[in-house]
Amino acid sequence: MRQKGHMHGGAASPCAGCKILRRKCVKDCVFAPYFPAKEPYKFANVHKIFGASNVKKMLQVLSENHRSDAVNSLVYEANARVQDPVYGCVGTISSLHSQLETLQTQLAFAHAELVHMKTLHHVDTKSPPYMASGITFPENKDFYSDVDVAFLYDNGAGESLWSC
User: Counting Cβ atoms within 10 Å, is residue 158 exposed (0-12), middle (13-18) or buried (19+)?
Assistant: First the structure.
């Protein structure tokens, strides 16, 4: 699973971690498998946010089968912190949650509109009222066509969910 540095003229190039820290990359370097020399930006952001010493300690404590996931998480969080220093990943999650709520509202509105349109189509295609022995039976009253469907968010203000 470990990736070794590239060979340049007989000498192995250091991993991104050792290159940025300007030190010799030893054979059992904890950074080498996860921060290859080709991707120095990964380690640069992680080092900037968490510090190389802290990352090294975390990786040494974890078993080797969990290290890759930990590095991926650290890289993701570090990149999010670089983009949004205040909120980091939480800002991204909050934004996605807001988008999800908006889309769920739009979906509910589209579903209600579809039900309304099906009901209108059903009323238009009904056969005339049944007549037997001179008695006329009225058609079933279609309540959906007379009532505007409105969903209200009950936060005390009575705001509509459809005003996005």
Answer: exposed
User: Which tokens go with 124?
Assistant: 């238009």
Measured CA to CA, the distance from residue 14 to residue 20 in angstroms comes to 9
Token pair 């059992």 is at which residue? 28
pLDDT digits (tens), the chain, 164 positions: 444 444 433 356 899 999 999 999 998 999 999 999 999 999 999 999 999 999 999 999 999 999 999 999 999 999 999 999 999 999 999 999 999 999 999 999 999 999 999 888 877 666 555 555 555 555 555 544 444 444 444 444 544 445 44
Residue 100 CA: distances (Å) to CA of 89, 92, 95:
16, 12, 9
Buried b (16+ CB within 10 A) or exposed e, 77-111: bbbbbeeeeeebbeeeeeeeeeeeeeeebeeeeee
AA identity, residue 158: G
**What is the pLDDT, as a whole number, of residue 121?**
80
